[in-house]
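for the record, two folds in this file. i put them one after another cuz i was lazy. first one right below, seq on top, structure tokens after. the second one comes after a little note so u can tell where it starts
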Amino acid sequence: MQKQITGAFYGIAIGDALGVPVEFKTRSYLKENPITTLTGYGCWNQPAGTFSDDSSLTFCTAESLIGGYDVQRMAQTFVRWSSEGYWGAHNEVFDIGHTTRRALQRVGAGVSPLVSGGFEEFENGNGSLMRIMPLAFFLANENDIHQRYQIIREVSAITHQHFRSVLGCFIYVEFLRALLSLKNIAEAYLQMQRSVNAYVANQSFNEAEIKHYERVLQQNIAEVSEQQLLSSGYVVYTLESALWCLLRTNDYASCVLLAVNLGGDTDTTGAVAGAAAGLHYGIDQLPPAWVNEVVKSSEIGHLANRFMAAINTPMKP
């Protein structure tokens, strides 16, 4: 699992960093000016290799899980990022979503992280999906799907507690868990569909909400045309785009470049696709130049090693 963890940790940071300079650019613009490697400056005026809040909050999630699952500690780690730039690429925050900012302000003011997240329908951005990847490894040996769902729900709800955001995180983590044991991406996708559909069928979830993920859960998202794919900051569209890129490519670089060049919320689409691709292909198949060029490269590797050691150590009750 070490190569998968390290691949996922670098994979998210690189995918994120590829997208940072062209966030908000349109698909048509990127068809004329495609991203082919790590570039600098652009819309956020950051040097090449700079990752954003997507990776920072993912690394905060992993850092917190090293000590075991504690949602309060995790939320406080997020607050440390928002207030001090902890795990920021350059130890500062240059990008934070509105829903995440409001939620972390509430946590900082003493509100429980179990009720701090946005719960309105308009608060279904991709801000919890982008950071949820470490739970796939943390829950790799948790065989109770209901327990997995509850932990994913709580971690999402620190910032995003609407069911639609939670379900998106659940689908993604279940897919990543399947990728841990299945070498074929399409098979892992089918296994995710089976497990998620069986679980939601036995719950009293709102069917209208589940229908938002119909293209992911009931169809084959890989068969959707690029024109039908939206790559905005909406959680459903980010998940669709990331899965589409992974299912339609055969290597890490092709996957993340396809994701970023879809335009829109380029850093998060790149991050969510990059985490999955990095997990699947492993650190050895990531472009070495990108691994070396991403900001905080050595710290990312060290975190991956500490995270691996922690989840392989039986937790004290």
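(here's the note) second protein begins now
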Amino acid sequence: MTLPSADSSRPQQLVVLGTGGTIAGNAASATDATGYRAAERGIEELIAALPALEGLRIETEQVAQIDSKNMSIAIWQRLARVLAMHLARPEVGGIVVTHGSDTLEETAYLLQRVLAPSKPVVLTAAMRPATSLQADGPQNLLDAIIVAATAGTSGVLAVVAGRIWSGLELRKVHVLQLDAFDAGDAGPIGAVEDGRIRLWRPMPAGAPLGLARIERESSGWPRVEIIASHAGSDGAIVDAVLAKPQPTPLAGLVVAGTGNATLHAELEAALWRAQAAGVRVWRCSRTGAGPVIVHDERIPAVSLTPWQARVALQLELLEGET
């Protein structure tokens, strides 16, 4: 296969890392799109199923084999280390990571913040198992490899259903549709069309925090929980979480607020108590789109999804502990 947008000045050794997910899943029937078992096929099998890749210089490595709902800090750490190792190799032009869709947005956000690579790290996933009549994994994987091998791409990206997303903005927005991802107001970076990419805006950028930020033993990472404000909220859940004993005391809370990150009055009072007890509290909106604009900074607000905000707060708390 010749990549039409590839630049001969760019190293064309590609690395494809597997972590499991629906893209590697099997079901008993080709018509079963929901009752499958994730993470049953290895990355070599997924690559072998794409004859269009013949002739490309591709290495494969199985980093994990999980349903991504079970993603852990330890696997994040392992994946980040493996990525950093391959990114440092001058002959490697880009890396693809197969991943489950459920926590793809959290992994992508973490990797961009920690690595912010000058080479492309392209995550991809599937909404149907490999056995499905509507298997979307093969096309998504092929598209991701095209993006990873194309000159001008960089940073942590996600490629699903022909769209290219920034790892800082990605979010899963549908349970079943093949086109299950979005980026709120930002929209996609570009698209893969007939084997070529068309870009609409710049790649994700920023200074990398570095691997040292996340190298602390996973069991010792600061514990950050997510709660939501809703009709009838009170402070009971906050007080209950605060009361959980050592060895993992609560370090942070992310609150998914209503509308413009607003909070029920009783919940807000409990959050002030949490802050007084030394817990870092951030709030964001549960709506899924739009910037958060607030005038009361007693509880800081961020324009991130609750899941991104949790990762961001963990990274900030880790800064003081490394």
